[in-house]
Amino acid sequence: MTVVAEPPLQVELDAPLTRLTAEYPYAPESAKLARWLVDAALASWELSDLINDAALVASELMSNAIETGCLRKIGFAVERLGESTVRITVSDGSCSLPVLVIARLPADTDHVPPRGRGLLVVNSLAHRWGVDLHARGKDIWAELRRRRSKG
């Protein structure tokens, strides 16, 4: 089943659809479109408590892919893996592995680099994340899990 819609995106599903996919151009606005898809999917799956973190992860992964500019389209997927877990996958045409940079911020916060912290954000929000290389590039994915409530 393919769902095509223009933002703002509203998804109403008759069947239990557990994976939504899209292709986006290598353009800055694609990160915003991916966030909308994540928002709509997680709301329809009643995982609203994950929306903010998942949208931020999607945005960071999309931003990294946009910088590669390797294919005509970026592949994007959001998938429900169970009652409390979602996976966000971004596919691009680059075989370059992402690098998680852990560095100290400068004491002078006026000179904090504007870029280079995306995977640090993903690493802090995701339950786990990884990269799968293939002949035409890579898939970088992150899984987010609903936190168990105490009690």
Descriptive notes:
The protein has 151 residues and is an alpha+beta fold. The protein has a single domain (20-106, 115-145), classed as Histidine kinase-like ATPase, C-terminal domain (Heat Shock Protein 90). 28% of the residues lie in helices and 25% in strands. It contains three helices and five strands; from the N terminus they run βααββαββ. It has helices at 29-44, 51-68, 118-125; strands at residues 19-24, 74-80, 85-92, 128-134, 137-145. A five-stranded antiparallel β-sheet has the order 1-2-3-5-4, covered by helices on one side. β2 and β3 (85-92) form a beta hairpin. Residues 1-5 have low confidence and may be disordered.
Order of helices and strands: EHHEEHEE
Report the span from N to C terminus: 40 Å
> What is the count of distinct domains?
1
Rg result = 16 Å
Look up the CATH topology: Heat Shock Protein 90
Q: Please mark out the parts with pLDDT under 50 across 5 or more consecutive residues, or reply none.
A: 1-5
How many β-strand stretches? 5
Sequence-ordered SSE layout with sheet pairings:
Layout (H helix, E strand, L loop, with lengths): L18 E6 L4 H16 L6 H18 L5 E7 L4 E8 L25 H8 L2 E7 L2 E9 L6
Features:
28% helix, alpha+beta, Heat Shock Protein 90, 25% strand, 5 strands, 151 residues
Question: How is this structure best summarized?
Answer:
28% of the residues lie in helices and 25% in strands. It is an alpha+beta fold and 151 residues long. α1 (29-44) runs antiparallel to α2 and α2 (51-68) packs antiparallel against α3.
